[in-house]
Design goal:
Layout: H1 14-18, E1 24-28, E2 34-38, H2 49-53, E3 69-75, H3 78-83, H4 89-99, E4 103-110, E5 115-121, H5 124-127, E6 138-139, H6 141-145, E7 153-156, H7 159-171, E8 178-183, H8 191-205, E9 208-212, E10 221-222, E11 227-228, E12 240-245, E13 248-253, H9 259-265, H10 272-276, E14 289-293, E15 307-311, H11 314-322, E16 325-329, H12 332-335, H13 348-357, H14 364-385, H15 387-399
Parallel strand pairs: 4-7, 5-6, 7-8, 8-14
Antiparallel strand pairs: 1-2, 3-15, 3-16, 4-5, 9-12, 10-11, 12-13, 14-15
Helix pairs in contact: 13-14
The structure holds flavin-adenine dinucleotide and iron/sulfur cluster (2 copies).
Pfam families: FrhB_FdhB_C
Keywords: Iron, Iron-sulfur, Metal-binding
InterPro entries: 4Fe4S_Fe-S-bd, 4Fe4S_Fe_S_CS, FrhB_FdhB_C, Polyferredoxin-like_ET
């Protein structure tokens, strides 16, 4: 028995990591999501390891007994907080563990092939590319395979990647060597969408040399508005892509209509598993620590960024308190305010998007335009479903 028949799974790559014959590859499927392929089934020895570690094949989480402890947290170092997506918890946890002799398996953006990928950092300097969320699915296999289970590691990833990874280290009785960290996860968008987006950006700025999804300052030439300044962006407005290329810079924010963020956050192009098989929303995790953006009312006036930090193990909780972090303990519902509690709804728009993304003749802006009316209609219908909330938002805007 092996994972041969599995389709539309989490694409976590742990099956490929564990396979003793090295016959499982992970590649993008037609919809732009990672999926396993058996490269040579005649070499399969039927050991069943790939199925054993696969989170997709199990209904229960790999971490069963949890005691949730939660807090708001942010780095005591201003520069770290400015670079990271929210409060910089991820970097501070990585930094302290590296100083204790651990390595970190985190995610960087590879500008050569325009993908996010797991890699190993052994020094604090090597940890820097892992700073900041890359809002696309990461390719895990090279990073996971480079892990020596006898050594100590922090491994970060989406909750589904982490759930499979815990099964993997448990199988080899090595859990004590690892600290696992995931995040509240909205889902991952199709790489078809990302490739179309980046193709348009490259037309303006040439080959990409640097990319940040959550840029908190505008310190460069904004190609859209042609403005050069050093404006600090309120953290709440930091869905702000900064792309540097050989011919210039590109800056684009959700609040100004960025097409990537509009499509990603409209839930029209996420992985099938994110709609149908995600068992990791809200307080469900197999990590020691879960991080996220603390968007709730408690910190709504904070402009620098606050992380939500949740520990599911005592080890995780103690580690958070050792880091270079300001910590304010809160109940879980305060820390997780605004996070998704259920899977997103897979509606007609998703089906249309699937077809549009596969068309080579359409660019990202043409696709967005084709969906625009339907997206607006959906927004209006949602508002009508929640009249009180809508009124409150309108009054808030008038007040501002
Ligand atoms: C696809 C995706 C969806 C997310 N959805 C939500 C959400 O719904 N709600 C929420 O509050 N937060 C979400 N986050 C997390 C959020 O963006 C911040 O990472 C979080 O607030 C922690 O911020 P930080 O400043 O501590 O760390 P950051 O500086 O953001 O560090 C990011 C950490 O995540 C890892 N990482 C980055 N990109 C990826 C990736 N593509 N796959 C796996 N690991 C990655 C890095 O290795 C690093 O350890 C999401 C992140 C991603 C990548
Ligand atoms: S969910 Fe992960 S372990 Fe399971 S088949 Fe897919 S890639 Fe392999
Ligand atoms: S939403 Fe769920 S299934 Fe999708 S990437 Fe995140 S954890 Fe995995």
């Amino acid at each position: 028995m092996n994972i041969e028949s599995i389709k539309d799974c989490y694409g976590c790559g742990v099956c490929a990591t564990v396979c003793p014959r090295d016959i499982i590859g992970i590649s993008l499927n037609v919809l732009g999501f990672y999926e396993p392929v058996i490269l040579d089934s005649s070499q399969c020895i039927d050991c069943g390891l790939c199925c054993e570690v696969c989170s997709y094949l199990h209904d229960e989480l790999s971490l069963q007994k949890v005691e949730i402890q939660s807090c708001a947290a942010w780095s005591k170092e201003k520069a770290v907080r400015q670079k990271c997506s929210s409060g910089g918890v991820s970097f501070e946890v990585g930094r302290i563990l590296i100083n204790k002799g651990y390595k970190v398996c985190g995610v960087r953006y590879n500008t050569e092939i325009n993908r996010a990928e797991h890699y190993i950092a052994s020094t604090v300097e090597e940890l820097i590319p892992s700073i900041g969320s890359k809002y696309i699915q990461s390719y895990t296999v090279d990073g996971f395979k480079a892990i020596d289970r006898k050594q100590k590691y922090l491994v970060t990833g989406t909750p589904c990647q982490i759930d499979s990874f815990r099964r993997y280290i448990r199988k080899f009785k090595k859990e004590e060597n690892f600290i696992l960290m995931d995040f509240f996860c909205h889902g991952v968008p199709s790489m078809l969408m990302w490739k179309k987006y980046i193709k348009e950006v490259k037309k303006t700025i040439g080959k990409i040399t640097y990319l940040s999804w959550r840029n908190k300052v505008i310190n460069c030439h904004d190609m859209k508005t042609m403005i050069i300044d050093n404006e600090k962006i309120d953290w709440h407005d930091s869905y702000n892509l900064l792309v540097k290329g050989e011919k210039g810079y590109y800056n684009s924010r959700l609040s100004q209509g960025d097409v990537f963020y509009r499509l990603f956050l409209s839930d029209t192009c996420l992985g099938k598993a994110c709609y149908e098989k995600c068992k990791f929303k809200y307080d469900r995790s197999s990590a020691d620590i879960r991080i996220g953006d603390l968007w709730g009312r408690m910190y709504k006036h904070n402009e620098d960024g606050v992380s939500a930090a949740v520990a599911f193990t005592q080890r995780g909780w103690e580690l958070l308190h050792e880091c270079n972090l300001e910590i304010v303990e809160h109940s879980f519902d305060v820390v997780a305010e605004g996070q998704m509690k259920e899977m997103p709804i897979c509606d007609e728009l998703y089906k249309r998007m699937k077809i549009l993304l596969q068309r080579d003749d359409l660019d990202i802006n043409q696709i967005y335009r084709q969906l625009l009316i339907a997206l607006k209609y959906r927004k209006v219908m949602n508002r009508l479903k929640h009249p009180v909330r809508t009124m409150k938002n309108i009054l808030k805007k008038i007040g501002k």
